[in-house]
Each structure stands twice: as structure tokens, then as C-alpha cells.
């Protein structure tokens, strides 16, 4: 570690509606210094932080265990906001692989596109990607909500176990392959359904719920969504369904 | 892990400092692997061929240089001879590329023709990307487009020959950079070797260059060759390939390796991580991760040759 000490890079605090906003100039710090600076401010009780100059670097704002609001002002690399519980994180740019991975609760909003494995294995909270995602968005989700404003790539929702995914645009191949539980709503075209999935029209109540959810983030989806859930055929091994198993593997 | 990058300037002037862009992108990706690094740049067309030759792996460079240049002189007029590290560079007028390559590689088993192009030039070395500037002044290299690589070695040795970009030996102006593994490498290699193809390394990435060269010889366009490779190559891969006319990429059908694409009105940049896109384009772009099995090709603008004067409007 070298360069400027983290103290020099913490900008003046501003008053915004009575809340103290701490501005961290990330451009002069390495990733570890940025994360240590965030932690120090959270420990001191600050609840509104802005990180400038993230420079598309990896592992920013990870493992935040409070409900602090953190704005990262620009594109980020891999795993941003991962392993967090309670954080309210806004990324003003695109995000690389594994954004918000393993989120327990809280909210992560990505203004741009996200790479592969967005919201992988989250157990709770909300992850919003206003743009499109790469492959395996919401893989192994165990709860929570993933909202995708654009398209999702290959194998979104693969082996998801609980939770909801809302895709406003088109879904790539192998959608929700081998899902156990949970539900995926798709507004656009589905390139190909994954193994052991069942598709139906979303109900009137579900449509209302989707609209409300999108409206909370100033988003608007198409009028009609389809609903994808598990066919539950792969829950138990059955010799008579050998063909289904062959396809799944 | 490896880092790969590609950059195309849409303006079409061959004097754009593409080398500086590639160097900035590779430096940003340096943490993906420091074992070796290199770039391939398609610059202004030479009057004949631009040739880069590896002067053996060890010992003094000078005896190799003399033998290489003397051999080339028997085949055509040689000019602009330059020695950079273990790479000898020269231009040769009106030589047959295949005959030239065979003659040069007959000098010694340690001699390898690293690139032959009417526009292509490859510089590469063992070590991290920052060393490229010290040895080759990469930031001053100009062209319409280029590709680059920084390597974390996993399965084959670290030396100059195993550094990327890989020229598709025998195919003028075609080169490739690869991140990932080609798991049917041995099978493909055995097949190709039976046809007499020589492999220069034990690196699985080399088979992609050989594959593309074969497809091009069969008459496929770069786009068609990239599309076919997604079916024919097994494993995890993102790779970028280019000719004098176009640059493109291909991703494996499971999207196992990262590759981001960003296109603006002026340029196209592709790289494994956004940090490299940002190094090339600054701000004002949208990066996205293309889908599983995706390919794309961008036509390169035709550059002016050095002998072609800029056109002046006559009133």
C-alpha cells in the first residue's frame, strides 16, 4: 500500500437535509484503503457515504453490515457490495461479475449493465440492475428479489431455491434451469426454457405486484409478464424419468 | 487467468496511437497475469512484408540477427532492420511469405517467425505489460486496430514463444489473443499435425490461431470462422482475433470467461474487465457482457499507405 493516506482523501462533509454526507475520493486510494475508510466512517456512526473515482475496480464496498447508504459514483469491477447485510448501495455506472453476491438484506441498485452472476446466491434484500445482465444472474438465489430492467443472459436463475426474479426484457437460453423453488417473471421473449420449468401467464395480482415493484425504482416494464416456476420433476430421482435426468445433466 | 484486449479506431487513419491505448488497457489488466505480455498492431501497409523473428531463446542475439538478415536478403530487398530484445524486425519487398518463413526457421531450431504481415506487427516479451514500453516503445506504435494479452501461465512454459498474441503461422496478417482453456486442444492438435501443421508451443491457445488460419484457407470470412469455432472448440474461452480488415471476438457457449464490449462513435474496445475499457475510452460509453457463445466482428477502416498522399481538393 502506498500513495496518499486515506485521511487526506476524505472530502469535506456536506449537510444535506440534516444528514452528514461523507465523500471519499477513491481516485487517490487503493481498494483496501477505500474499504477501510468506509468501515471507519460506519464505525463512527456516519450513515451517508459517497465514493468518488471507483475506477471500475473490484471488491468495493463489500461486507457492509449496517443499513448505511453508500453511493459509488461510477463503474465498478467484480463483486461490488458482496457479502453485505442491510446496506443501501447505489452504483452510478455498470458493474462487473458477481455484483451483490450473497446479499443477506438491504438494497443494491446498478444504474448500468451488470456482468455475469449478478445477485448470485442472495438470501434476501433487493438487487436492481437497470440495464442488462450477463450469464447466470440470480444463480442459486435463496431468497430476495432481483430486478433486471433490460435482458438477462444465459442460465439466469439456475438452481434458484427461493426468491423472485423480474426480467423486463428478453431472457437468454436455459432460463431457470433446474430451479427448486422461487419464481422468474419475464416481460420479453424467452430464448429457451431450462430443464424442469413450467411457464404460465402471471396473474392479475402478480402483475400489480410487479408494477408496484418497478415503480418503486422509477422503472416501467411491458404490460404482460410470463411466470416461470419449477416443474418439480427433478426433486426426486425416478427411474421412469431417466430421459429428463439425462437432459438435466 | 490472463487478460485480453482489443481496440479499433473508426477514423481509419493508420497513424492513430493504438499502441498507447493497448498499453493502457493491458497495464490496467496487469493483475490478471504478469508472466508475459504483448500486442499485435495493424499499422500502415508496408511496401512488402513486415517481419518479426525471434532470435533464439538464449545466447547472444547478434549471430542470430546476422544469419536471419542474410537469409532474408537472398529472398528480397531487406530494409529497416531493427533489434529489440530478442526480436529482429525488418521489411522485405516482394517475398513469398511461406518461402520466407521456411528459410528463416531453417536458420536454427531456436528461430521462430513471430509475425508476418503487410500491416501486422507483433511485439511480445516475458514479464508484465509495463515492460513492453521499455523494450518496444509500444505507446508510439500506430495503426487502425490492435489486440493485446497479459498472461498468467497455467499449463505450459513461460518464454517468448509462449507469449501472446499468437500469429497464425503462415497466414499473413492474422493474429489472436485468448483467455481460458481449450479442452479439446490435444485432439485438435493431433488432427492438424497429421496434416503437417507445425505447432510452436505447448500452449492450448495456439490451436485457436491454427484453427482460424485453416478456416480462412477454406474460404470462410473471419465472422464465419469465429462462429464455427464456438461449436468446434471445447472449454472456457474468450478470444479476440483480427486480420488487416477486421477485428472480432468469440465467447464459449457457457459464458465462462469474461469479455466486455464497449462501442462509441469513435472506437470499439473489448477487454475482460471494465477497468481496461475505462483506460481506453475514459467516460461516455456503455459496457456490456455479451451472451453465451456470442461473436462479433467490426470491419477495420482501410488506412492510407505511406506512399499515398492525403488527397487535396482542387478548386
Strand order within the widest beta sheet of chain A: 1-2-3-4-5-6-7-8-9-10-12-11
What is the ordering of alpha helices and beta strands of chain A?
EEHEEEEEEEEEHEH
Approximate strand percentage of chain A: 15-25%
- Give the low-confidence spans of chain B: 309-315
| Unreliable parts of chain A | none
Q: Gyration radius of chain A, to the nearest Å?
A: 20 Å
Find the CATH topology of the largest domain in chain B: Glutamine Phosphoribosylpyrophosphate, subunit 1, domain 1
| Sheet having the most strands of chain B | 7 strands, antiparallel
Instruction: Count the beta strands of chain B.
Output: 16
CATH class of the largest domain in chain B: Alpha Beta
Could you state the oligomeric state of the chains shown? heterodimer
Mean pLDDT of chain B: 93
CATH superfamily of the domain at 59-232 in chain A: Glutamate synthase, alpha subunit, C-terminal domain
Overall morphology of chain B: globular
* CATH fold assignment of the domain at 59-232 in chain A: Pectate Lyase C-like
Structural class of chain A: alpha/beta
What's the CATH class label of the domain at 59-232 in chain A?
A: Mainly Beta
The largest contact between protein chains, plus residue counts on each side, is: A-B, 27 and 16 residues
Amino acid at each position: 500500500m502506498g500513495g496518499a493516506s486515506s485521511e487526506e482523501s476524505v472530502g469535506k462533509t456536506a449537510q444535506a437535509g440534516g444528514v452528514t454526507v461523507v465523500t471519499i475520493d477513491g481516485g487517490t486510494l487503493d481498494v483496501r484503503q477505500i474499504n477501510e475508510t468506509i468501515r471507519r466512517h460506519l464505525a463512527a456512526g456516519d450513515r451517508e457515504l459517497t465514493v468518488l473515482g471507483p475506477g471500475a475496480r473490484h471488491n468495493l464496498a463489500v461486507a457492509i453490515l449496517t443499513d448505511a447508504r453508500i453511493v459509488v459514483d461510477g463503474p465498478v469491477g467484480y463483486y461490488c457490495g458482496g457479502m453485505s447485510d442491510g446496506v443501501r448501495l447505489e452504483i452510478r455506472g455498470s458493474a462487473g461479475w458477481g455484483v451483490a453476491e450473497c446479499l443477506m438484506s438491504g438494497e443494491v441498485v446498478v444504474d448500468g449493465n451488470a456482468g455475469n452472476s449478478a445477485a448470485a446466491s442472495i438470501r434476501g434484500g433487493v438487487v436492481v440492475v437497470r440495464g442488462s445482465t450477463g450469464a447466470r444472474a440470480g444463480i442459486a438465489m435463496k431468497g430476495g428479489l432481483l430486478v433486471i430492467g433490460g435482458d438477462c443472459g444465459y442460465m439466469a436463475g439456475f438452481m434458484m431455491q427461493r426468491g423472485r426474479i423480474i426480467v423486463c426484457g428478453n431472457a437468454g437460453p436455459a432460463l431457470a434451469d433446474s430451479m427448486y423453488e422461487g419464481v422468474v417473471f419475464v416481460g420479453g421473449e424467452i430464448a429457451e426454457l431450462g430443464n424442469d420449468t413450467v411457464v404460465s401467464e402471471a396473474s392479475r395480482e402478480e402483475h400489480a405486484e410487479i408494477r408496484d415493484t418497478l415503480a418503486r425504482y422509477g422503472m416501467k416494464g411491458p404490460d404482460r409478464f410470463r411466470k416461470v416456476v419449477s416443474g418439480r420433476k427433478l426433486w426426486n430421482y425416478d427411474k421412469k424419468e431417466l430421459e429428463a435426468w439425462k437432459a438435466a445433466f | 487467468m490472463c487478460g485480453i484486449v482489443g481496440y479499433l479506431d473508426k477514423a481509419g487513419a493508420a497513424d492513430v496511437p493504438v499502441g498507447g491505448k493497448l498499453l493502457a488497457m493491458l497495464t490496467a489488466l496487469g493483475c490478471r497475469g504478469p508472466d508475459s505480455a504483448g500486442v499485435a498492431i495493424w499499422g500502415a501497409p508496408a511496401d512488402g512484408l513486415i517481419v518479426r523473428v525471434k532470435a533464439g531463446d538464449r545466447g547472444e542475439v547478434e549471430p542470430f540477427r546476422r544469419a536471419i538478415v542474410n537469409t532474408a536478403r537472398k529472398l528480397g530487398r531487406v530494409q529497416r532492420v531493427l533489434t529489440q530484445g530478442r526480436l529482429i524486425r525488418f521489411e522485405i519487398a516482394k517475398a513469398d511469405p511461406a518461402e520466407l518463413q521456411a528459410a528463416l526457421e531453417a536458420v536454427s531450431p531456436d528461430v521462430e517467425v513471430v509475425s508476418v504481415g503487410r500491416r501486422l506487427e507483433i511485439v511480445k516479451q516475458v514479464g508484465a505489460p509495463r515492460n513492453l514500453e521499455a523494450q518496444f516503445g509500444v505507446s508510439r506504435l500506430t495503426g487502425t486496430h490492435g489486440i493485446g494479452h497479459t498472461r498468467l501461465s497455467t499449463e505450459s512454459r513461460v518464454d517468448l514463444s509462449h507469449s501472446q498474441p499468437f500469429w497464425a503461422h503462415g497466414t499473413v496478417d492474422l493474429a489472436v489473443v485468448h483467455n481460458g482453456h481449450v479442452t479439446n486442444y490435444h485432439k485438435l492438435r493431433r488432427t492438424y499435425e497429421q496434416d503437417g501443421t507445425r505447432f510452436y508451443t505447448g500452449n492450448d491457445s495456439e490451436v485457436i490461431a491454427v484453427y482460424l488460419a485453416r478456416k480462412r484457407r477454406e474460404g470462410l470470412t473471419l465472422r464465419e470462422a469465429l462462429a464455427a469455432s464456438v461449436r468446434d472448440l471445447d472449454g472456457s474461452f474468450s478470444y479476440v482475433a483480427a486480420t488487416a480488415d477486421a477485428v472480432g471476438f468469440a465467447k464459449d457457449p457457457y459464458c465462462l470467461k469474461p469479455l466486455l464490449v464497449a462501442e462509441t462513435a469513435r472506437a470499439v474496445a473489448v477487454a475482460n474487465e471494465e477497468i481496461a475499457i475505462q483506460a481506453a475510452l475514459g467516460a461516455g460509453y456503455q459496457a456490456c457482457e455479451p451472451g453465451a457463445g456470442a461473436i462479433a466482428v467490426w470491419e477495420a477502416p482501410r488506412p492510407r499507405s505511406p506512399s499515398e498522399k492525403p488527397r487535396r481538393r482542387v478548386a
